Amino acid sequence: MKKLLFILCFVFTFSVSAQNNPDIEKDKTTILAVMKAQEIAWSQNDLEGFMQGYWKSDSLKFYGASGLTKGWQQTLDNYKKGYPTKEHSGTLTFKINDISQIEDSSYWVMGEYFLKRNVGDANGVFIIIFKKIDGEWKIVADMSC
Question: Sheet harboring 91-103: ordered strands across?
Fold first, then answer.
């Protein structure tokens, strides 16, 4: 019984200290700043600027209504095709529901997106994976629908 109590106390202490970890809070703040920059770029129909939040690699994965897209350039090309003008891209707003650390250098972000546009609003949900690459937080996988 004492051993179980010790283990429970250890797990509780570890989980509380992890939640109050200043590095985790700094990571989350930086990730939110990347997403804020994406909102601004998208809302200006600056799709290249929006894509700066993504890992510029052929290994980037995007999963949406059209299936799986691999690679940064193909993802950008798909965005340009689907959102050719400011009327199509509209104004983007994210609502973040959860940011959780997966391991030291990666987090998932779960949330909702809202596009306010003249051609009709579009809303949906997403889960994205951020990874710290060369000192910068980048999206390495995105599932949006």
Answer: 67-70, 61-64, 136-144, 122-133, 106-116, 91-103
Q: Tell me which residue of 145, 3, 2 sits closest to 65, measured CA to CA.
A: 145
Q: What distance in Å separates the CA atoms of residue 14 and residue 94, rounded to the nearest whole number?
A: 31
Residue 138 tokens read as: 């980048």
Task: Report residue 142 CA to chain centroid gap.
Answer: 7
Residue reference for tokens 């809302």: 43
Element holding 127 (H helix, E strand)? strand 122-133
* Strand ranges (E), 1-145: 61-64, 67-70, 91-103, 106-116, 122-133, 136-144
3-class SS shares of the chain: helix, strand, coil, % to 5 = 45, 35, 20
pLDDT digits (tens, 9 = 90+) for 4-55: 334 434 444 444 444 568 899 999 999 999 999 999 999 999 999 999 999 9
pLDDT confidence of residue 19: 53
∠ at Cα 83 (79, 84), nearest 5°? 110
User: Could you tell me which residues are beta bridge partners of residue 111?
Assistant: 96, 126
- Distance CA(97)–CA(107), nearest Å, equals 13
> By the 8 A CB rule, do 93 and 39 touch?
yes
